[in-house]
């Protein structure tokens, strides 16, 4: 993907992507200009993947793979027993709260699994991560034109 701009007030190009075996989504946060960053894109991508997983298989959702290790750590280890002041200091706390509530709902929810990124590994987790990274990069390079289907 294209790197974020160095200037504090320059608009960012944040693209997120998520996929299941039968569906995919790619979206841009370009409309939010300078008020968005990679953390927002990562968390919204994970939220989109959770929703796609639940929609694809409501009784037994697919595991959600992410290369954003900090989000997995926050959701699995920090936030479950956190006091309110811990939540208040988190960047993108409303997105963390939404993700946390989706993953801890009474209905079946997917598990959140960290996978290494950019390894050129051939295990299914690395291949899935590479696929959604390519989707996001392709969309980013198209300057706002999101393809209907990637080949």
Outline the structure in words.
This protein has 151 residues and is of the alpha+beta class. It contains five helices and four strands, in the order E-E-H-E-H-H-H-E-H. A two-stranded antiparallel ribbon has the order 1-2. Strands 3-4 form a two-stranded parallel sheet. Helix 1 (38-56) runs parallel beside helix 4. The mean pLDDT is 78.
Q: What's the total count of β strands?
A: 4
Question: Could you describe the largest sheet, including whether it forms a barrel?
Answer: 2 strands, antiparallel
Euclidean distance between termini CA atoms: 18 Å
Number of helices: 5
- Write out the strand line-up for the largest beta sheet, numbering strands in chain order: 1-2
Give Rg in angstroms.
16 Å
Q: SSE order in H/E notation? A: EEHEHHHEH
Q: What share of the residues does DSSP label as strand, in percent? A: 5-15%
pLDDT < 50 stretches: none
Structural class: alpha+beta
Query: Mean pLDDT, as a whole number?
Result: 78
- From the spread of the alpha carbons, the general shape counts as globular
Share of residues in helices: 40-55%
Feature tags:
151 residues, alpha+beta, two-stranded antiparallel sheet, two-stranded parallel sheet, 42% helix
Summarize the entry for a quick read.
The protein is 42% helix and 11% strand. It is α+β, with helices and mostly antiparallel strands and 151 residues long.
């Amino acid at each position: 993907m294209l790197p974020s701009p160095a200037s504090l007030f320059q608009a960012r190009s944040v693209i997120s992507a998520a996929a299941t075996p039968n569906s995919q989504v790619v979206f841009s946060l370009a409309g939010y200009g300078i008020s968005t960053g990679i953390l927002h894109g990562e968390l919204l991508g994970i939220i989109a993947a959770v929703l796609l997983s639940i929609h694809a298989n409501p009784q037994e959702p697919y595991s959600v793979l992410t290369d954003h290790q900090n989000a997995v750590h926050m959701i699995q280890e920090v936030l479950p027993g956190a006091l309110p002041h811990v939540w208040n200091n988190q960047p993108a706390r409303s997105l963390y709260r939404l993700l946390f509530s989706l993953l801890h709902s009474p209905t079946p929810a997917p598990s959140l699994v960290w996978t290494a990124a950019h390894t050129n590994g051939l295990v299914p987790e690395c291949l899935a991560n590479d696929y959604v990274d390519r989707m996001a990069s392709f969309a980013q390079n198209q300057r706002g034109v999101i393809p209907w289907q990637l080949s």
